[in-house]
Design brief:
29 strands, Rossmann fold, 6-stranded mixed sheet, alpha/beta, globular, 3 domains
């Protein structure tokens, strides 16, 4: 009898993917379908470093941290419409769960789609938590960490400096998460990581290993306390750091920032076109000599009487001006072609105090009709970045239920997004905390008409039972975080001139959980009991929507993929992405379902669509066999007929 192909319940296998990449690059290293590392060493030649003494950064547990990033997850994300806002229209996501497992679950659907990642991880000050991942079963570990099941193991806890594994525990937490984050970025995508001096050195070392030293775009020092913390022993600390890496430096773009009033005041001259300031046409700094660009060394002639600027000395009244640097031949910034094109409107010639003549370019305050931006510096100083502003804003939004210490100021996050996003970028924050990143995304969209989307990921860390928030009915950190997005979205909409349908202030909530599919949750300890319960393919209490979203993730479709529900001969058929995928659920599946799908395929004419059946749902084996044959006869690829 024909059989359906069992669908895999695991996330992307990064180890297998890396092996396949090696095979594609070096097919000659295969021996009986196994990698021959001796051959690989020969191919790589001198690039292999096998000396016992070599530069490296390692720590106790690093090998397990690497394995943990590569270990597939069998978990899923379950939709929670009750907690969501504007479910039917929003494309923003809020995911409750351990970010390690969530990042694994996002690998197939969101690889290469995230433009910007911003994270504000625990700084490892000794007061914030650093929890240990469980290499064997991280989903169960997640439930234990968040108090959802009883356990004799460790729960969320602080990481005191007296611990012998102070840096080690933090590194083991961060390393696999950063490994998984890289794959999600677009080729030119960037990640920003906030940190203070406790783990700055360690963070840079592991980020260099994961992203590559060459892909470090900058280390920004942010002044977040102008007065400084006077209780420090030696220096009053007034800053923290922001590390910025890209996936591929060749494709990275950092946008300019709008200048402040001090910079704008530099444009003190004006003509019929705009305000401008004068910048020397003579090149300075690196590559500024004639030898560097010989074709950009030439005489310019100027007539002080009629203000004519020329490449030709038309009369004795013209003064020759050459680009000289400390007695050496320099060069101009422009070649002759650009000079001739722009000399009449964009150049000014002036006599200096020592009697020499200089040529200046008019740097205008407007570019293409918009205010000129400036390249971001590596020191960010703005009173709005003060950490107290983040707390003040949250207090205004949440009042008594605010439980976050030193949340990031919204203007700081908005500037990060300004320099790194396009108007339609997808933004990820997998240490969401109070969700300042979501708030900043919505507010920035309201200011520039953008359509940026966010994905927030936050561990639902239980609230203390004596906290004001808990007494108000909030159970965990995620509850407060979602409340902040809800109230912030309403505030943004009320203060904006943009219509309701032009700005997305909603969010879909998903919750990390074990798979909905029984066989993907096989427990080797209770194997007999697990196998006995498999008469039903699905976990008790799971909905059809739960199962459909799991199929989306496992097939690599994003969580905003549209689908519609249809009842066919007593079974439920989910038409996903206009017939690219069908999911068939129910306990009485007949060949009428296959006929329905075949007719739909004639309407859509999709290439290589997939059909996923509840394997135990067919009325009998004949109906199953006939269904498979009907679909095959109507152009469906046998490999794309799957079962769960």
């Amino acid at each position: 009898m024909s059989e359906l192909n069992p669908m895999s319940g695991e996330t992307l296998d990064l180890t297998r993917e890396n092996i396949e990449k090696l095979k594609d690059l070096f097919p000659e290293i295969l021996t009986e379908n196994q990698i021959d590392f001796e051959k690989l060493r020969l191919i790589l030649g001198d690039e292999v470093n096998d000396h016992p003494e070599k530069y490296s950064f390692t720590w106790n547990g690093k090998q397990n941290a690497i394995k943990l990033a590569q270990q597939p997850s069998t978990g899923t994300l379950r939709p929670n419409k009750e907690k969501s806002k504007n479910w039917d229209t929003t494309e923003n996501l809020y995911i409750e769960g351990d970010n390690l497992e969530v990042l694994k679950l996002l690998q197939k659907s969101y690889a290469g789609k995230i433009k910007v990642i911003y994270i504000d991880p625990p700084y490892n000050t000794g007061n914030d938590f650093v929890y240990k991942d469980n290499f064997k079963d991280n989903i169960r570990n997640y439930f234990e960490q968040t108090g959802q099941v009883d356990s004799e193991g460790e729960r969320l806890s602080t990481n005191p400096e007296s611990s012998g594994r102070f840096h080690t525990d933090w590194l083991n937490m961060m390393y696999p998460r950063l490994v998984l984050s890289k794959k999600l970025l677009t080729d030119g995508g960037v990640i920003f990581i906030s940190i203070d001096d406790h783990e700055l050195t360690q963070l840079k070392m592991i980020a260099d290993q994961i992203y590559g030293e060459q892909n470090l775009l900058g280390i920004i020092s942010t002044v977040n306390n102008l007065k400084g913390r006077s209780d420090e022993e030696f220096f009053a600390t007034s800053n923290e750091f922001l590390l910025c890496y890209t996936k591929d430096r060749k494709n990275a773009v950092i946008n300019g920032l709008e200048p402040g009033d001090e910079y704008k005041n530099e444009f003190k001259y004006s003509d019929s076109i705009s305000n401008y300031k004068e910048v020397g046409l003579k090149k300075t700094g690196k590559n500024s000599l004639r030898a560097d660009r010989p074709n950009m060394y030439y005489p310019i002639y100027y007539n002080p009487k009629n203000k004519d600027i020329s490449l030709t000395k038309h009369s004795e009244e013209y003064i020759e001006i050459l680009p000289e640097i400390k007695g050496k031949d320099g060069r101009w910034r422009w070649g002759k072609e650009t000079f001739l094109e722009k000399k009449d409107t964009e150049l000014v010639v002036k006599k200096t105090q020592n009697g020499n003549w200089n040529v200046y370019v008019k740097m205008r305050d407007l570019v293409d009709g918009k205010p000129r931006t400036i390249r971001p510096k590596t020191t960010w100083i703005d009173p709005n970045y003060d950490s107290g502003n983040g707390t003040k804003l949250l207090q205004e939004l949440l009042g008594n239920i605010n439980t976050f210490d030193n949340p990031k100021p919204i203007d700081y996050i908005k500037d990060i997004l300004r320099v790194s996003t396009d108007k339609d970028s997808l933004i990820l924050d997998f240490f969401a905390g109070s969700s300042t990143t979501a708030h900043a995304t919505m507010e920035l969209n309201s200011e520039d008409g953008g359509d940026r989307k966010f994905i927030m990921v936050q561990l639902p860390e239980p609230l203390k039972k004596d906290s004001a928030a808990f007494k108000e009915g909030y159970i965990n950190i995620s509850d407060i975080s979602q409340e902040r997005i809800d109230r912030a979205g309403d505030k943004v909409l009320n203060e904006s001139n943009i219509s309701n349908d032009k700005i997305d202030i909603g969010f879909k909530v998903f919750e990390l959980d074990t798979s909905n599919i029984q066989k993907w949750n096989v427990d080797s300890v209770n194997l007999e009991e697990t196998l006995f319960s498999m008469a039903n393919n699905f976990i008790e209490g799971r909905s059809h929507a739960d199962i459909v979203y799991e199929v989306l993730l496992k097939l690599g479709l994003d969580l905003n993929t549209p689908f519609e529900e249809n009842i066919v001969d007593g079974s439920t058929v989910y038409d996903i992405a206009l017939g690219n995928v069908y999911v068939v659920l129910g306990e009485n599946i007949t060949q009428e379902v296959a006929n329905y799908i075949a007719d739909k395929q004639k309407e859509y004419e999709n290439e290589n669509p997939s059909v996923v059946f509840n394997d135990n749902g067919f009325v009998n084996d004949n109906e199953k066999l006939n269904s498979i044959e009907i679909l095959k006869n109507n152009g469906f690829n046998e490999e794309q007929l799957m079962s769960i």
